Amino acid sequence: MPSPRYWREVPSRLRLEAARCSGCGKVNYPPRPICPGCRGKESEPVTLSKTATIITSTVIHIAPDDFLFEAPYAIAIVETPEGARFMAQVVECDPSSVGPGMDVSLEFRLIRKEARSGILCYGFKAVPTASWEAQS
Amino acid sequence: MAGIIGYGAFIPRKRITAEEIARQWGKDPETIRKGLLLEEKSVPGIDEDTITISVEAGADAITRAGIDPSKIGALYIGSESHPYAVKPSGTIVIDALGIGPEVHVADFEFACKAGSEAMFVSLGLVESGRVEYAMGIGADTSQGAPDDALEFSASAGGAAFIFGKENLLVDVLETYSFTSDTPDFWRREGEFYPRHGGRFTGEPAYFKHVLSATRAILDKTGLKPSDFRFAVFHMPNGKFPQQAGKKLGFTQEQMETGWIVPTMGNTYSGSSPTGLAAILDVAEPDDLILMTSFGSGAGSDSFVFKATELLPGRQPLGRTVRSMLDGPKHYVTYGQYAKLRDKIIVNE
After folding, report:
1. What CA dihedral angle connects A91, B151, B235 and B188, to 10 degrees?
2. Apex CA B54: angle with CA B134 and CA B319, to 5°?
3. Each residue's pLDDT tens digit in chain A (136 positions)?
4. C-alpha count within 13 angstroms, C-beta hemisphere, residue B19
5. CATH hierarchy code of domain B170-307
6. Rg value, chain A, Cα
7. Which of the four CATH numbers 3.30.1490.190, 3.40.50.720, 1.10.1740.10, 3.40.47.10 does domain B3-169+318-340 have?
8. Which residues have CB under 8 Å from A65's CB, separation 6+?
9. What is the pLDDT of residues B151-172, one digit of tens each?
10. Domains in chain B: boundaries
Protein backbone atom coordinates (compact mmCIF):
# COMPACT_ATOMS: atom_id res chain seq x y z
CA MET A 1 0.00 0.00 0.00
CA PRO A 2 1.49 3.39 -0.94
CA SER A 3 2.37 5.53 2.10
CA PRO A 4 0.02 8.43 1.16
CA ARG A 5 -2.99 6.08 0.98
CA TYR A 6 -2.11 4.48 4.32
CA TRP A 7 -1.73 7.96 5.82
CA ARG A 8 -5.15 9.06 4.55
CA GLU A 9 -6.72 6.04 6.22
CA VAL A 10 -5.05 6.55 9.64
CA PRO A 11 -8.24 7.78 11.42
CA SER A 12 -10.24 4.71 10.44
CA ARG A 13 -7.42 2.16 10.54
CA LEU A 14 -5.74 3.29 13.78
CA ARG A 15 -8.70 4.73 15.72
CA LEU A 16 -11.73 2.93 14.25
CA GLU A 17 -13.32 6.27 13.36
CA ALA A 18 -16.59 5.82 11.47
CA ALA A 19 -19.54 8.05 10.51
CA ARG A 20 -23.24 7.74 11.42
CA CYS A 21 -25.52 9.02 8.68
CA SER A 22 -27.75 11.82 9.95
CA GLY A 23 -30.49 10.73 7.52
CA CYS A 24 -30.88 6.98 8.02
CA GLY A 25 -28.59 6.28 11.01
CA LYS A 26 -26.42 3.79 9.13
CA VAL A 27 -22.88 3.59 10.48
CA ASN A 28 -20.39 3.69 7.62
CA TYR A 29 -16.87 2.40 8.15
CA PRO A 30 -14.70 3.86 6.84
CA PRO A 31 -16.63 7.15 6.66
CA ARG A 32 -18.03 8.04 3.23
CA PRO A 33 -19.02 11.44 1.88
CA ILE A 34 -22.31 9.97 0.60
CA CYS A 35 -24.21 7.36 2.63
CA PRO A 36 -24.65 4.15 0.60
CA GLY A 37 -27.90 3.55 2.48
CA CYS A 38 -29.84 6.75 1.73
CA ARG A 39 -27.47 8.93 -0.36
CA GLY A 40 -27.46 11.44 2.46
CA LYS A 41 -24.49 13.81 2.74
CA GLU A 42 -24.74 14.69 6.45
CA SER A 43 -23.11 12.51 9.11
CA GLU A 44 -21.63 12.66 12.58
CA PRO A 45 -18.37 11.00 13.68
CA VAL A 46 -18.55 7.86 15.79
CA THR A 47 -15.75 5.72 17.19
CA LEU A 48 -16.41 2.00 16.94
CA SER A 49 -16.32 -0.27 19.99
CA LYS A 50 -13.40 -2.66 20.29
CA THR A 51 -15.74 -5.62 20.38
CA ALA A 52 -17.51 -7.35 17.51
CA THR A 53 -19.26 -10.52 16.37
CA ILE A 54 -18.17 -12.62 13.41
CA ILE A 55 -20.71 -12.66 10.58
CA THR A 56 -18.82 -14.99 8.25
CA SER A 57 -15.27 -16.23 7.89
CA THR A 58 -12.86 -18.28 5.81
CA VAL A 59 -9.38 -19.75 6.21
CA ILE A 60 -6.51 -18.69 3.96
CA HIS A 61 -4.09 -21.52 3.23
CA ILE A 62 -2.24 -20.04 0.22
CA ALA A 63 -1.25 -16.60 1.45
CA PRO A 64 0.16 -13.56 -0.36
CA ASP A 65 3.93 -13.11 0.14
CA ASP A 66 3.53 -10.56 2.97
CA PHE A 67 1.49 -13.09 4.97
CA LEU A 68 3.57 -16.17 4.14
CA PHE A 69 4.50 -16.88 7.76
CA GLU A 70 0.93 -16.44 8.98
CA ALA A 71 -0.81 -19.12 6.88
CA PRO A 72 -3.08 -20.81 7.58
CA TYR A 73 -5.05 -17.91 9.08
CA ALA A 74 -8.68 -16.90 9.38
CA ILE A 75 -10.22 -13.73 8.03
CA ALA A 76 -13.75 -12.68 8.82
CA ILE A 77 -16.38 -10.06 8.27
CA VAL A 78 -17.14 -8.75 11.73
CA GLU A 79 -19.93 -6.49 12.97
CA THR A 80 -19.46 -4.04 15.84
CA PRO A 81 -22.28 -3.11 18.25
CA GLU A 82 -22.71 0.11 16.20
CA GLY A 83 -23.62 -1.97 13.14
CA ALA A 84 -20.44 -1.35 11.16
CA ARG A 85 -19.11 -4.32 9.22
CA PHE A 86 -15.57 -4.79 7.98
CA MET A 87 -13.04 -7.49 7.21
CA ALA A 88 -10.44 -8.42 9.80
CA GLN A 89 -7.89 -11.14 10.33
CA VAL A 90 -8.73 -13.38 13.28
CA VAL A 91 -5.69 -14.28 15.39
CA GLU A 92 -4.70 -16.01 18.65
CA CYS A 93 -6.85 -19.03 17.83
CA ASP A 94 -7.05 -22.22 15.81
CA PRO A 95 -8.22 -20.85 12.40
CA SER A 96 -10.54 -23.82 11.89
CA SER A 97 -12.42 -22.90 15.08
CA VAL A 98 -13.50 -19.49 13.75
CA GLY A 99 -17.11 -19.21 12.67
CA PRO A 100 -20.30 -17.10 12.60
CA GLY A 101 -21.56 -15.83 15.94
CA MET A 102 -18.14 -15.89 17.61
CA ASP A 103 -17.54 -12.88 19.86
CA VAL A 104 -14.21 -11.13 19.34
CA SER A 105 -12.30 -8.19 20.73
CA LEU A 106 -10.41 -5.88 18.39
CA GLU A 107 -6.71 -5.55 19.21
CA PHE A 108 -4.13 -3.21 17.77
CA ARG A 109 -1.70 -5.18 15.62
CA LEU A 110 0.82 -4.90 12.83
CA ILE A 111 -1.18 -5.65 9.70
CA ARG A 112 1.68 -5.95 7.22
CA LYS A 113 5.23 -4.95 6.46
CA GLU A 114 5.96 -3.51 3.05
CA ALA A 115 8.75 -5.97 2.24
CA ARG A 116 12.03 -5.47 4.14
CA SER A 117 12.44 -1.72 3.82
CA GLY A 118 8.94 -0.28 3.36
CA ILE A 119 6.55 1.21 5.89
CA LEU A 120 4.82 -0.78 8.62
CA CYS A 121 1.02 -0.77 8.40
CA TYR A 122 -0.97 -1.02 11.62
CA GLY A 123 -4.64 -1.54 12.42
CA PHE A 124 -6.97 -3.88 14.25
CA LYS A 125 -7.30 -7.64 14.22
CA ALA A 126 -9.95 -9.77 15.87
CA VAL A 127 -9.15 -11.98 18.86
CA PRO A 128 -11.80 -14.49 20.03
CA THR A 129 -13.08 -13.40 23.44
CA ALA A 130 -12.72 -16.96 24.67
CA SER A 131 -9.23 -17.34 23.29
CA TRP A 132 -7.83 -20.85 23.39
CA GLU A 133 -6.44 -22.24 26.58
CA ALA A 134 -2.95 -23.62 26.99
CA GLN A 135 -1.95 -25.95 24.21
CA SER A 136 1.33 -27.47 23.27
CA MET B 1 2.66 17.19 43.91
CA ALA B 2 2.52 14.91 40.86
CA GLY B 3 1.96 11.23 40.35
CA ILE B 4 0.37 8.48 38.30
CA ILE B 5 -3.22 9.13 37.23
CA GLY B 6 -3.61 6.09 34.97
CA TYR B 7 -1.73 2.91 34.11
CA GLY B 8 -2.03 -0.11 31.85
CA ALA B 9 -0.02 -3.11 30.74
CA PHE B 10 -0.01 -5.63 27.94
CA ILE B 11 1.61 -9.07 27.64
CA PRO B 12 1.30 -11.19 24.47
CA ARG B 13 -0.46 -14.55 24.81
CA LYS B 14 2.19 -16.78 23.28
CA ARG B 15 4.67 -18.58 25.54
CA ILE B 16 7.71 -20.79 25.21
CA THR B 17 8.97 -22.85 28.12
CA ALA B 18 12.56 -22.86 29.34
CA GLU B 19 12.43 -26.61 28.85
CA GLU B 20 11.62 -26.24 25.12
CA ILE B 21 14.56 -23.85 24.58
CA ALA B 22 16.91 -26.03 26.63
CA ARG B 23 15.92 -29.11 24.62
CA GLN B 24 16.79 -27.32 21.36
CA TRP B 25 20.36 -26.64 22.51
CA GLY B 26 21.01 -29.79 24.49
CA LYS B 27 20.98 -28.04 27.85
CA ASP B 28 19.55 -29.25 31.12
CA PRO B 29 16.21 -27.53 31.76
CA GLU B 30 16.50 -28.04 35.52
CA THR B 31 19.70 -25.99 35.54
CA ILE B 32 17.83 -23.10 33.94
CA ARG B 33 14.81 -23.48 36.21
CA LYS B 34 16.85 -23.61 39.38
CA GLY B 35 19.75 -21.41 38.30
CA LEU B 36 17.85 -18.54 36.68
CA LEU B 37 14.40 -19.25 38.25
CA LEU B 38 12.71 -19.08 34.84
CA GLU B 39 9.78 -21.32 33.88
CA GLU B 40 8.58 -19.76 30.63
CA LYS B 41 8.50 -16.44 28.80
CA SER B 42 6.10 -14.45 26.64
CA VAL B 43 6.68 -14.44 22.88
CA PRO B 44 5.35 -11.73 20.57
CA GLY B 45 3.10 -12.78 17.71
CA ILE B 46 4.32 -12.06 14.21
CA ASP B 47 2.04 -9.00 14.33
CA GLU B 48 3.05 -7.72 17.77
CA ASP B 49 5.85 -5.23 18.42
CA THR B 50 6.77 -2.35 20.72
CA ILE B 51 4.19 -0.13 19.00
CA THR B 52 1.25 -2.52 19.33
CA ILE B 53 2.14 -3.31 22.96
CA SER B 54 2.39 0.43 23.71
CA VAL B 55 -1.01 1.13 22.15
CA GLU B 56 -2.75 -1.66 24.09
CA ALA B 57 -1.11 -0.65 27.40
CA GLY B 58 -1.66 3.06 26.71
CA ALA B 59 -5.37 2.53 25.95
CA ASP B 60 -5.90 0.91 29.37
CA ALA B 61 -3.93 3.74 31.01
CA ILE B 62 -6.24 6.32 29.41
CA THR B 63 -9.34 4.36 30.48
CA ARG B 64 -8.11 4.16 34.08
CA ALA B 65 -7.20 7.86 34.07
CA GLY B 66 -10.59 8.86 32.63
CA ILE B 67 -9.10 11.85 30.81
CA ASP B 68 -9.43 13.28 27.32
CA PRO B 69 -6.33 11.83 25.57
CA SER B 70 -5.89 14.98 23.51
CA LYS B 71 -4.79 16.73 26.74
CA ILE B 72 -1.69 14.55 27.03
CA GLY B 73 1.15 16.94 26.22
CA ALA B 74 4.07 14.52 26.06
CA LEU B 75 4.54 10.84 25.25
CA TYR B 76 7.80 8.94 25.58
CA ILE B 77 8.43 5.29 24.78
CA GLY B 78 11.45 3.51 26.19
CA SER B 79 12.47 0.41 24.25
CA GLU B 80 15.43 -1.31 22.66
CA SER B 81 13.22 -2.85 20.00
CA HIS B 82 11.63 0.14 18.27
CA PRO B 83 10.31 -1.26 14.96
CA TYR B 84 11.75 1.60 12.92
CA ALA B 85 15.41 2.66 13.04
CA VAL B 86 14.28 6.09 11.83
CA LYS B 87 10.68 7.11 12.64
CA PRO B 88 9.59 7.34 16.26
CA SER B 89 7.31 4.62 17.61
CA GLY B 90 5.53 7.39 19.51
CA THR B 91 4.20 9.00 16.33
CA ILE B 92 2.08 5.94 15.60
CA VAL B 93 1.10 5.44 19.25
CA ILE B 94 -0.23 8.99 19.66
CA ASP B 95 -2.34 8.77 16.52
CA ALA B 96 -3.75 5.39 17.55
CA LEU B 97 -4.62 6.67 21.04
CA GLY B 98 -6.14 9.98 19.93
CA ILE B 99 -3.32 12.02 21.46
CA GLY B 100 -1.94 15.10 19.74
CA PRO B 101 -1.06 16.66 17.43
CA GLU B 102 -0.14 19.18 20.19
CA VAL B 103 2.20 16.74 21.91
CA HIS B 104 5.93 16.31 22.44
CA VAL B 105 7.04 12.82 21.39
CA ALA B 106 10.34 10.99 21.65
CA ASP B 107 11.64 7.43 21.70
CA PHE B 108 14.11 6.61 24.46
CA GLU B 109 16.80 3.94 24.62
CA PHE B 110 18.76 2.90 27.70
CA ALA B 111 18.81 -0.90 27.51
CA CYS B 112 16.40 -2.24 30.12
CA LYS B 113 15.74 1.05 31.91
CA ALA B 114 14.40 3.05 28.96
CA GLY B 115 10.88 2.60 30.34
CA SER B 116 11.64 4.12 33.74
CA GLU B 117 13.55 6.82 31.87
CA ALA B 118 10.33 7.69 29.99
CA MET B 119 8.45 7.73 33.32
CA PHE B 120 11.11 9.92 34.94
CA VAL B 121 11.00 12.56 32.19
CA SER B 122 7.18 12.47 32.03
CA LEU B 123 7.00 13.11 35.77
CA GLY B 124 9.46 16.00 35.51
CA LEU B 125 7.50 17.73 32.75
CA VAL B 126 4.28 17.48 34.72
CA GLU B 127 5.92 18.68 37.95
CA SER B 128 7.37 21.68 36.13
CA GLY B 129 3.96 22.62 34.79
CA ARG B 130 5.17 22.42 31.19
CA VAL B 131 2.41 19.91 30.32
CA GLU B 132 -0.82 18.93 32.09
CA TYR B 133 -0.42 15.20 31.43
CA ALA B 134 2.46 13.08 30.16
CA MET B 135 2.61 9.37 29.30
CA GLY B 136 5.72 7.28 29.88
CA ILE B 137 5.84 3.79 28.36
CA GLY B 138 8.30 0.92 28.71
CA ALA B 139 7.81 -1.83 26.12
CA ASP B 140 9.95 -4.34 24.29
CA THR B 141 9.98 -7.40 22.09
CA SER B 142 13.40 -8.36 23.37
CA GLN B 143 15.93 -10.31 21.35
CA GLY B 144 18.33 -12.92 22.64
CA ALA B 145 20.82 -14.67 20.37
CA PRO B 146 20.23 -18.38 19.69
CA ASP B 147 21.93 -20.61 22.29
CA ASP B 148 22.70 -17.60 24.48
CA ALA B 149 21.61 -17.37 28.12
CA LEU B 150 19.48 -14.37 27.14
CA GLU B 151 17.31 -16.56 24.95
CA PHE B 152 15.74 -18.06 28.08
CA SER B 153 14.64 -14.66 29.35
CA ALA B 154 14.20 -12.14 26.48
CA SER B 155 10.43 -11.71 26.19
CA ALA B 156 7.69 -9.28 25.17
CA GLY B 157 5.40 -6.91 27.03
CA GLY B 158 5.18 -3.47 28.54
CA ALA B 159 3.37 -0.93 30.66
CA ALA B 160 2.20 2.67 30.29
CA PHE B 161 1.80 5.32 32.97
CA ILE B 162 0.08 8.71 32.70
CA PHE B 163 1.39 11.39 35.03
CA GLY B 164 -0.64 14.37 36.23
CA LYS B 165 -1.13 16.66 39.22
CA GLU B 166 -4.76 15.96 40.12
CA ASN B 167 -6.80 12.85 40.87
CA LEU B 168 -3.68 10.83 41.59
CA LEU B 169 -3.93 7.05 41.84
CA VAL B 170 -0.35 6.93 43.06
CA ASP B 171 1.70 9.74 44.50
CA VAL B 172 5.38 9.90 43.53
CA LEU B 173 7.18 10.75 46.78
CA GLU B 174 10.76 10.68 45.49
CA THR B 175 13.03 9.71 42.59
CA TYR B 176 16.74 8.99 42.32
CA SER B 177 19.04 8.07 39.43
CA PHE B 178 22.47 6.40 39.50
CA THR B 179 24.49 6.06 36.27
CA SER B 180 28.03 5.13 35.21
CA ASP B 181 29.92 3.88 32.14
CA THR B 182 29.78 0.12 32.62
CA PRO B 183 29.95 -1.96 29.40
CA ASP B 184 28.08 -5.03 30.63
CA PHE B 185 25.62 -5.44 27.74
CA TRP B 186 25.38 -3.71 24.38
CA ARG B 187 24.24 -3.94 20.78
CA ARG B 188 26.22 -2.12 18.08
CA GLU B 189 24.45 -0.29 15.24
CA GLY B 190 23.27 -2.77 12.58
CA GLU B 191 23.72 -5.84 14.78
CA PHE B 192 20.65 -8.05 15.26
CA TYR B 193 21.41 -9.47 18.70
CA PRO B 194 22.83 -7.84 21.82
CA ARG B 195 26.06 -9.08 23.43
CA HIS B 196 26.93 -9.17 27.09
CA GLY B 197 29.81 -9.69 29.46
CA GLY B 198 28.55 -12.89 31.08
CA ARG B 199 29.21 -12.79 34.82
CA PHE B 200 30.34 -9.16 34.48
CA THR B 201 26.64 -8.25 34.14
CA GLY B 202 26.20 -9.14 37.82
CA GLU B 203 28.27 -7.49 40.57
CA PRO B 204 29.77 -4.41 38.81
CA ALA B 205 26.67 -3.77 36.73
CA TYR B 206 23.25 -4.92 37.99
CA PHE B 207 23.99 -5.15 41.69
CA LYS B 208 26.16 -2.03 41.96
CA HIS B 209 23.55 0.18 40.29
CA VAL B 210 20.40 -1.36 41.77
CA LEU B 211 21.80 -1.40 45.31
CA SER B 212 23.29 2.09 45.05
CA ALA B 213 20.12 3.69 43.68
CA THR B 214 17.87 1.95 46.19
CA ARG B 215 20.08 2.75 49.19
CA ALA B 216 20.28 6.38 48.08
CA ILE B 217 16.51 6.81 47.71
CA LEU B 218 15.99 5.20 51.11
CA ASP B 219 18.48 7.70 52.60
CA LYS B 220 16.82 10.56 50.74
CA THR B 221 13.34 9.70 52.02
CA GLY B 222 14.34 8.47 55.47
CA LEU B 223 12.35 5.29 54.80
CA LYS B 224 13.47 1.77 55.63
CA PRO B 225 12.63 -1.48 53.76
CA SER B 226 10.06 -2.51 56.36
CA ASP B 227 8.04 0.66 55.62
CA PHE B 228 7.13 -0.67 52.17
CA ARG B 229 4.36 -3.11 51.36
CA PHE B 230 5.74 -3.80 47.84
CA ALA B 231 9.09 -3.62 46.08
CA VAL B 232 10.04 -4.39 42.48
CA PHE B 233 13.49 -4.50 40.96
CA HIS B 234 14.50 -4.96 37.34
CA MET B 235 14.16 -8.64 36.44
CA PRO B 236 16.85 -9.83 33.97
CA ASN B 237 16.22 -13.32 35.38
CA GLY B 238 14.48 -14.69 38.44
CA LYS B 239 17.54 -14.75 40.68
CA PHE B 240 19.07 -11.27 40.45
CA PRO B 241 16.09 -9.25 41.80
CA GLN B 242 15.63 -11.70 44.67
CA GLN B 243 19.30 -11.43 45.64
CA ALA B 244 19.27 -7.63 45.35
CA GLY B 245 16.10 -7.32 47.40
CA LYS B 246 17.39 -9.58 50.15
CA LYS B 247 20.72 -7.70 50.34
CA LEU B 248 18.72 -4.49 50.80
CA GLY B 249 16.55 -5.98 53.54
CA PHE B 250 13.32 -6.65 51.64
CA THR B 251 11.37 -9.86 52.21
CA GLN B 252 10.01 -12.32 49.66
CA GLU B 253 6.49 -11.25 50.64
CA GLN B 254 7.25 -7.63 49.67
CA MET B 255 8.74 -8.68 46.31
CA GLU B 256 6.38 -11.51 45.34
CA THR B 257 3.64 -9.47 43.58
CA GLY B 258 5.99 -7.57 41.29
CA TRP B 259 8.31 -10.56 40.71
CA ILE B 260 6.62 -11.70 37.50
CA VAL B 261 9.74 -12.80 35.64
CA PRO B 262 9.41 -16.58 36.20
CA THR B 263 6.40 -16.76 33.86
CA MET B 264 6.79 -13.55 31.81
CA GLY B 265 10.55 -13.44 31.19
CA ASN B 266 12.52 -10.22 30.92
CA THR B 267 10.62 -7.64 28.90
CA TYR B 268 13.71 -5.39 29.02
CA SER B 269 12.38 -1.78 29.09
CA GLY B 270 9.00 -3.14 30.18
CA SER B 271 10.35 -5.31 33.00
CA SER B 272 10.16 -3.30 36.23
CA PRO B 273 7.31 -1.07 34.84
CA THR B 274 5.18 -4.18 34.20
CA GLY B 275 6.09 -5.44 37.68
CA LEU B 276 4.91 -2.07 39.01
CA ALA B 277 1.64 -2.42 37.08
CA ALA B 278 1.12 -5.84 38.68
CA ILE B 279 1.55 -4.20 42.08
CA LEU B 280 -0.82 -1.34 41.25
CA ASP B 281 -3.44 -3.95 40.30
CA VAL B 282 -3.67 -5.02 43.95
CA ALA B 283 -2.25 -2.14 46.02
CA GLU B 284 -4.41 -0.44 48.65
CA PRO B 285 -4.55 3.17 49.82
CA ASP B 286 -1.43 4.36 51.69
CA ASP B 287 0.66 1.36 50.56
CA LEU B 288 4.27 2.39 49.95
CA ILE B 289 5.87 0.93 46.80
CA LEU B 290 9.52 0.91 45.78
CA MET B 291 10.63 0.44 42.17
CA THR B 292 14.24 0.30 41.00
CA SER B 293 14.98 -0.28 37.34
CA PHE B 294 18.29 -1.22 35.76
CA GLY B 295 19.59 -0.57 32.28
CA SER B 296 22.88 -1.95 31.06
CA GLY B 297 25.47 0.55 30.11
CA ALA B 298 24.60 1.22 32.99
CA GLY B 299 22.12 2.95 35.26
CA SER B 300 19.22 2.60 37.69
CA ASP B 301 16.18 4.77 38.42
CA SER B 302 14.49 4.46 41.78
CA PHE B 303 10.97 5.64 42.60
CA VAL B 304 9.02 5.71 45.85
CA PHE B 305 5.26 5.63 45.30
CA LYS B 306 2.31 5.89 47.66
CA ALA B 307 -1.12 4.58 46.63
CA THR B 308 -4.10 6.87 47.13
CA GLU B 309 -7.77 6.35 47.93
CA LEU B 310 -8.61 6.55 44.19
CA LEU B 311 -6.56 3.53 43.13
CA PRO B 312 -8.91 0.66 44.12
CA GLY B 313 -11.78 2.13 42.11
CA ARG B 314 -9.65 2.32 38.93
CA GLN B 315 -8.02 -1.11 39.15
CA PRO B 316 -10.96 -2.99 37.53
CA LEU B 317 -11.16 -0.59 34.57
CA GLY B 318 -8.33 -2.30 32.69
CA ARG B 319 -6.66 -5.67 32.18
CA THR B 320 -4.59 -6.83 35.14
CA VAL B 321 -1.06 -8.14 34.67
CA ARG B 322 -1.94 -11.33 36.51
CA SER B 323 -4.94 -11.97 34.23
CA MET B 324 -2.64 -11.75 31.19
CA LEU B 325 0.04 -13.96 32.75
CA ASP B 326 -2.40 -16.60 33.96
CA GLY B 327 -5.09 -16.19 31.29
CA PRO B 328 -5.42 -17.82 27.88
CA LYS B 329 -1.99 -18.56 26.46
CA HIS B 330 -0.59 -20.57 23.61
CA TYR B 331 2.64 -22.52 23.94
CA VAL B 332 4.88 -22.55 20.86
CA THR B 333 7.61 -24.96 19.81
CA TYR B 334 11.16 -23.75 19.22
CA GLY B 335 10.50 -23.96 15.47
CA GLN B 336 7.43 -21.73 15.77
CA TYR B 337 9.40 -19.41 18.05
CA ALA B 338 12.18 -19.13 15.45
CA LYS B 339 9.59 -18.18 12.82
CA LEU B 340 7.90 -15.62 15.05
CA ARG B 341 11.20 -14.00 16.02
CA ASP B 342 12.51 -13.56 12.46
CA LYS B 343 15.21 -16.16 12.92
CA ILE B 344 14.32 -17.88 9.62
CA ILE B 345 15.47 -16.37 6.33
CA VAL B 346 13.27 -16.75 3.24
CA ASN B 347 13.52 -15.44 -0.30
CA GLU B 348 11.96 -12.04 -1.01
Report:
1. -100
2. 95
3. 678 889 999 999 999 999 999 999 999 999 999 999 999 999 999 999 999 999 999 999 999 988 988 999 999 999 999 999 999 999 999 999 999 999 999 999 999 998 888 999 999 999 999 754 433 3
4. 5
5. 3.40.47.10
6. 16
7. 3.40.47.10
8. none
9. 999 999 999 999 999 999 999 9
10. 3-169+318-340, 170-307
Burial class (CB in 10 A: 0-12, 13-18, 19+), B102: exposed
Looking at residue A132, its pLDDT comes to 44
Would you call the peptide bond into A30 cis, given omega within 30 degrees of 0 as the criterion?
A: yes
ipTM computed for the complex: 0.94
Distance CA B218, CA B214 (A): 6
Closest Cα of chain A to B47: distance in Å? 5
- Among A88, A97, A15, smallest CA distance to A48 is for A15
Alpha helices by DSSP H, listed for chain B, are: 18-24, 29-36, 50-65, 89-97, 114-128, 208-221, 239-248, 252-256, 261-264, 271-280, 311-314, 321-326, 334-340
Q: What is the pLDDT of residues B281-297, one digit of tens each?
A: 999 999 999 999 999 99
CB distance B293 to B274 below 8 Å: no
CATH of segment(s) A3-128: 2.40.50.840
Whether residue A92 lies within 8 A of chain B, CB to CB, comes out as yes
Residue B1 binned pLDDT confidence (cut-offs 50, 70, 90): confident
pTM of the shown model: 0.96
Residue of B20, B80, B117, B151 marked active site: B80
Catalytic, B56? Answer: no
Q: What is the pLDDT of residues B36-88, one digit of tens each?
A: 899 999 999 999 999 999 999 999 999 999 999 999 999 999 999 999 999 99
Q: Is B104 noted as a catalytic residue in this protein?
A: no
Q: Is B209 a catalytic residue?
A: no
Q: Where are the domains of chain A?
A: 3-128
Catalytic-role residue among B39, B40, B82, B112: B112
